[in-house]
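Q: Hi! New to this. If I give you a protein sequence and the SMILES for zinc ion, can you show me the bound structure?
A: Yes, paste them in.
Q: Okay, here:
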Amino acid sequence: MTAAPDRTAAPRPQDAPSEAASADGPTPGEIEAPAFANVDRAATALINAVPALLLVLAGWQLWNHGLRWRDVAIFLIMYVPVGLGVTVGFHRLLTHRSFKTSAWMRGALAVLGTMSVEGPVISWVADHRKHHAYTDRLGDPHSPHVDHGGGLRGAVRGLAHAHVGWLFDHQQRGARERFAPDLVGDPVVAFVDSTFVLWSLVGLAIPFGLGVLFGGTVGAGLEGMLWGGAVRIFVLHHVTYSINSLCHFFGRRRFATNDHSRNLMWLAPLSFGEAWHNNHHAFPTSAMHGMGRLELDLSGLSIAALERLGLAWDVQRVAPERQLSKAL
Ligand SMILES: [Zn+2]
Ligand SMILES: [Zn+2]
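A: Thanks. Here is the predicted structure of the protein with zinc ion bound:
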């Protein structure tokens, strides 16, 4: 337990863009489109379409052979650590600095998160910090509520943009130097960022190896890659995307925030606690997103476990009285 849980209230350099953010919207220096915009779009299309198409193959296999324990095991062996790499590593550690850890752990978490194939870690963090700086107003890279029109049509357009459309529309992507100078200057994170393709491929090689190990054939390896690679990438992608789309649209609001963030209970188990998204926008630097006894937050529990093992320290928590002060 940290001695000063109220520190979560204090703006720190990593969150500073929100303090400096203009009420009129972002300045040109805060926006950075990928260097090769069309190459980036083609790669993004491929990374999203191929796993979706391979789901058909997974469905065909299910229909013919049923669910094999081996495939479930490989899916989970990949989904849980890579998912925690995104939630504990990319999000709670590197974006929000909600706890401290060693350079070794920082690198390991960044590598695991990179295997999600959600883009290079520094770009991920820059976009997400910009989302917090301009939540649900002009400048937010992926708000379902800005400039999508009204009515049902506007809602559907907004949700589609927030879910996946923003990955192709580079108008509000966060500038890395502006939103993540700390990570650009961190040799460990900068290395993982620049070797993004390598770790994405390692994330496919591991389930292939596990398939060969468990099944004894190359065919079993390919099947392992289908479940621990393609299906896992597809599910984790859409769970992450849903935090940006669904969690700014559906669910309950527990705290007063100047945005549309919501807590979506059913998404909490799959997203390892990230779906307590209204809690998170109310207290962005808190390591714990689940704030009630019944708010399951596997990422928060993992950070608490790392703390007990001496692998994480300065874990940021929000004191009950501070939670009460923002409660609706
Ligand atoms: Zn949000
Ligand atoms: Zn966040």
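A: Residues 91, 95-96, 128, 132, 280, 284 surround zinc ion (ligand 2) (CB under 6 Å). Let me know if you'd like me to explain how to read the tokens.
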